[in-house]
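Ticket #4471: structure export looks truncated?
Reporter: QA, pipeline team
Priority: medium

Steps to reproduce: submit the single chain below to the structure queue and open the exported record.
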Amino acid sequence: MNKLQELTDKLYNEGLSKGQQEAEIILNQAKIEAEKILSEAKSKAREIEIAAKKQAAETGANANAEIKLAGRQIISEVKQSIENLILTKTVSPDIKHAFEDASFVQSLIMTATEQFNPHNSESLNLYMIVPEGQKQAVSEYLTQKVSSVMSSMDISDDNRMKSGFKIGSREEGYYISFTDEDFDNLFKAHLRPKVSELLFGQDTQ
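Actual output as written to the record:
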């Protein structure tokens, strides 16, 4: 009986010892695996943090750039509005008043006609468009001043025109417009840089 008890105890102790060793091996492997997973997780977390900071920096830089661009555009628009207001108040009334003066418009008509017909040629195929109701007066004026042109000048009126006139050559296929709006735009374009410099200095941005 003692022999059997000794054998039983021996098998139990050996089995217990072996089980404990295997358990320790499994536990150690688990610890190693856990440390590996934790290390990888920390590394991934650092990568995500770095990427997030980079993205945030880029987003911030882009936002700042957009804000600066919007600011420059707003400043530019405000400056243009001020320039337009000043030019409109100073230039437009004088231009409109000038085109209400019949003698001024007649002098323009004479100058334009002479430029299109510097040698008083009768072979020119010219045409002129004037505001509605002014055709007869312009025809009479040109007949008195440059009768040689009238044989080849076709004058018509247009109810869409408010002032001035248009003159052109059918042979050359082009015309030049002399209206208060044309002169208004011409003078504003010429004066705008000067006005901008007076208001804002050399920096026009």
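Status: closed, not a bug. The export was complete when the record was re-opened. Leaving a note from the reviewer for reference: Helices lie at 2-90, 92-99, 102-116, 135-145, 147-150, 180-200.
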